[in-house]
Amino acid sequence: MLRSWQGAIFPGIVFVIWELAGHMEGLKRDSLSQPSDIFVALYLGLLDGSIFRATAQTFEAALLGFFIASLVGVLVGIGLGLAPRIERIVGPTIDLLRPIPSVALIPLTLMIYGFGVRMEAAVVAFACIWPVLIVTISAVRSIEPGLIEVAKVLEMQPFERIRKIVLPAAFGRIAVGLQLALSISLVVAVTVEIVLNPRGLGHSMMNAQQALRFDVMYAQLLWIGLVGWALSHYSQKLINKWSPAFQAAKQGERS
User: Fold this and answer.
1) DSSP string of 59-76, one letter each residue
2) pTM for the full model?
3) What confidence tens digit (pLDDT) does each residue in 200-244 have?
4) Which of 225, 186, 69, 52 is nearest to 194 (CA)?
5) What is the DSSP string of 169-230?
6) 247 Cβ neighbours under 8 A, 6+ residues apart
7) In whole angstroms, what is the distance from residue 144 CA to residue 130 CA?
8) Which are the contacts of 206, defined by CB distance < 8 A and separation ≥ 6?
9) CA torsion sign, 154 to 159 to 162 to 167?
10) What is the domain-level CATH number for residue 56?
11) What is the pLDDT of residues 163-187, one digit of tens each?
12) Degrees (nearest 5) of the Cα angle 234, 237, 239?
């Protein structure tokens, strides 16, 4: 708790300086709202529910894309991690696709799905799958070879081997890739909404900017930062909580 409060000191100082500068002649800017106006706009947006509605729309696409990427990335990553020969075959294709910016897929997904949550989720999924896939492959490869040999000696079926050996041993590192992908999902979802998709926080920010409501625009930008921080903070807490419990449960199963 003390560390969290210490982390708020620097932003607090910035807001105070920003507020004071806004009252000085020669430093006022129409496009640079004062923090007091921004906080009022944020409060009003939360009060009338507009920010919550936009957040729900953004999260709908972000989480859908994240779950698709997580499922595909983990399953394919485990398969490639356990089969180095196949990984060498498909590796060049992965290396070719991975550098493509996710926003470059917007014209293609728009042509396929049109405007809406599916188009946005497809772009998010493309962006999120790579950290999950690469981290999962690396995590599976780093498993102690003796564990895999034990599974072979015990003649475990592939699914049973993955469930009892691979996942418990690699879960901690896979969770890091999932956490990174979760943060990316929010960034990409808002970006797609700013660029094209008429929904969510990104589109709401653009509407505020075009209406010259800079206090509302900054309020929504601040809200996105707070939401992103909450995602990162609580996902890390979830990892810290479940990773040891997951390991213990699987060790109990093996014993």
Assistant:
1) HHHHHHHHHHHHHHHHHH
2) 0.80
3) 888 898 888 888 888 888 889 989 988 888 888 887 777 776 665
4) 186
5) HHHHHHHHHHHHHHHHHHHHHHHHHHHT-SSHHHHHHHHHHHTT-HHHHHHHHHHHHHHHHH
6) 168, 171, 172
7) 24
8) 193, 194
9) negative
10) 1.10.3720.10
11) 777 777 777 788 888 888 998 999 9
12) 115
Full residue range of the structural domain in which residue 95 is found: 34-254
Examine residue 154 and state whether it is found in any structural domain, yes or no.
yes
Around 222, how many Cα atoms within 13 Å sit in the side-chain half-sphere? 21
Q: Confirm if 173 and 243 have CB atoms less than 8 A apart.
A: no
Task: Kindly state whether residue 17 falls inside one of the protein's structural domains.
Answer: no
Instruction: Please report, as a single letter, which amino acid is at residue 128.
Output: C
- pLDDT(94) > 60: yes
Q: Is 53 helix (H, G, I), strand (E, B) or coil?
A: helix
Q: How many domains does the chain have?
A: 1
pLDDT in tens, 60-89: 999 999 999 999 999 998 888 878 788 788
Helix (H, G, I), strand (E, B) or coil at 5: helix
If DSSP states are collapsed to H, E and C, what string results for 78-96? Answer: HHHHHCHHHHHHHHHHHHH
Note the maximum CA span of the chain.
79
Does residue 247 sit within a domain? yes
* Burial degree of 67 (CB within 10 A; 0-12, 13-18, 19+): middle
What residues contact residue 94 under an 8 Å CB cut-off, 6+ apart?
A: 133
Is 236 within a domain?
yes
